[in-house]
Every structure is written in structure tokens, then in C-alpha cells.
Amino acid sequence: TTKIAGYLVDLSNGHTLAAKGVMNPQISYGEDIVSRISHVIDSPAGGTRMRKLAVGAIDKLATELCNTVDAKLEEIVELVIVGNTAMHHLLLGLPVDQLAYSPFVPAVSEALDIKARDIGLHIAPGAYVHLLPNIAGFVGADHVAMLLATEVGQADGLSLALDIGTNTEVCLASDGKMTSVSCASGPAFEGGHIKDGMRAAKGAIEHFRIENGEVQFQTVDGAPPVGICGSGIFDILAQLYLSGVLDEKGRMRNNHSRVRTCKGQREFVIVNEEERDGRPAITITQQDVRELQLAKAAIQTGIQVLLEAENRSEEDIKQVIIAGAFGTYIDVSSAVAVGMLPSLSLNRFRQVGNAAGMGAKLALLSCSKRVEAQAIARQVGYIELATAPRFMQTFVEATYIRSHTNKGG
Description:
By secondary structure, the chain is an alpha/beta fold. The protein has helices at 33-42, 46-68, 85-92, 116-119, 141-150, 230-242, 286-309, 325-329, 332-337, 355-365, 367-379, 391-398, and strands at 3-9, 16-23, 78-81, 112-115, 128-131, 158-163, 168-174, 177-183, 204-211, 214-219, 227-228, 259-262, 265-271, 282-285, 317-323, 349-353, 381-382.
């Protein structure tokens, strides 16, 4: 939804020759899936525009990957693409109207093999594009790829797998049985809708601590701070709560020397104007906190709904697999402290990076893995989050900032 990651692979030996990520240009029509679907529904030409943007971005990404290893686009003979259901449909020009309304049925669920030229991609003549199957609703081929790569369905005991992003997929697996939900976590984890939020680029604050009342932070590449990326934003939320600046409802107290009021709302100053040689301060505002509460509540609710559906508790979970770009860099202890992730010992958590990308590479290299992906898609049960019993009550409770071992108040 937000970023497109690409890998150039040597089919003769399976080696990854180059990897690169770019922003999804569809973001100009909305940072979230629903905004883009609404644009297509409202504008007759909207679907064509979205498709051309996606195809153009993949072509550009393929060109840049080839340039890094002095290869030609025409040498790419096979392509595997995974994405959530909406991204899949927009790329192929499939109808998306039905994805705007419950029960959110995909136009196509099964795996597809399509000539690259029929999509508009400029790789080898006769090359095919393989698209992994979708499951249901917004749980798409990227989730199938993540499950394929992590082998969570084959794990012993109860496992939880999350692919965290603008759209977060969560799977609860137990001895071969898998059930998944999709959570609209929004762009906050990517720095979106946050006053000083940004992508994880040079100068982004990526880790943050408050020690004896003093702030400490680390930036990407050790550069002077210019903003805050997702992992830093989440650290700040946790640290402000643990230090008492935020209460459980997310209200910012005026009890720290770095809390001030600006334009009618409180904010916590991470780097002040003096420290930035007169440039505007980098802060977290009360509104930023509210955005983060909604984002973390969406994921927390998804986990809770899955556990309740299986009549299981957090303590039953043997391992938590965290995938996705944000999931790679997040401090798990921060996510546990604010209640987004279950309150388990840290050795039960495993951060695996871009597992959807790893699954796509497996499907690129192996026909048997493609068959396995289709079996996974058929096997996974799906719960539509908004129709789950007690959904709204669970979501409201999940907006509170507190670890699951501290649910008082």
C-alpha cells in the first residue's frame, strides 16, 4: 500500500542480485486502501490511472534493479507479484467496488499466470507474471507469501504471525489450523499523519529513551535529526507512557519540562529549536498520540478477536512472528509496554523482515512452493474484524495505553 519492494533474482542459482524499495505512487490518491478504492468508484477513469501508476512503478523498479547489476530489462523472464487484495485488483484492472462493502469479496482469489505484456510490463517478450492467490477481504497474496516463508502453519503449538504496515494482517496458527484477520492500522507506523513523521531515511529518529528525565535518541546513519520514523514514534509513545507523561487514556500531562502548549494542544519536545540551530522543533503532539492509539488498537483488536474465536489466551502463545518493514525495526518491548503486542517474554518474539518478499522469492524459484501457496490460501480461515462479537468494545479498550498485565483503571 505504501511501499513497493523488489528483488532481482538469478534463476540459475537462487541468489538475490539486488534489492530495492520505492514509494507506491498511488499514494497521491490516498494513503490507505479505502481512499484509493473510493477514488476508483467515484471516477470512471480512476481505475485506469491506478493501474498505470502501479505498472509504471514496477517497470521503474525493475529498471533500477537491473541497472545495479548491469543487466537489461529484457533479461527478466519471470516475475512474481504479491500484494493485498486491493493492490492486486488495482494492478490488474479488476473491479474493486465490492471491496468497499461487507463481506468484501475478491473478484479473483485463485493464483494467476498472465503474460507480462498483457499487464503492460516491459520485461522479456513472452515472460509470465505469477500472482499468488488471495484469501478473502483484504487478506491477500502478500499474507499468503508471508505464511509460506515463515512456515507458521507447520509450527508446534500456538503461533501468532503479524505483517505490520498500513494494512496489517494477523494469523493465529495452531497445529496446522490457521485463521487470519486484516487490520486497518493506517499510515502512522510509516510516519504518516504524524506531525514530524517521516520514512526511515537518513536523520530519522529511530530509537528513543527517557533516562532520569533526559531524552536520548538514535537517528538513521547517526545524522542530525530531521524527523521521526515509525520505530522511533512507537518508542516515544512507550517512553512517554512509562515515564508518566501520558496517562492510560493517552492524555498528555503537563508534568515534564519538555511538555508545552503550541497552537492549542500539548506537545512533547524531542529536539528543541536551539538544538536545531533555530529550525522548528521536532515534537510529538497530542494529536500524534491519538493517531498512534488508533493504529495500535487496530492490531491489538485483531489479535484479541483471533484468540477469542479459538477460545485461547495470550499465555498459550508459544511464538510471535513479526514481519514487515516496520516490524523489522520496532522495539518489541515498546510494543508490549503500550499493549499492542501480547505481554510475553521477549524470547518468544521473532522479527523476520520482509517475509512477504521472501515468500515471493520462494514462489519465483519453485513451482512446488506455488502449489504450497495455493494450499495455504485454501486452508486459512478468515474473520471479518468488524463483524466479530464485541468488536467495538474490544477496539475501544485497545485504545488504552497499557501492557496486557496492567489492565486496571
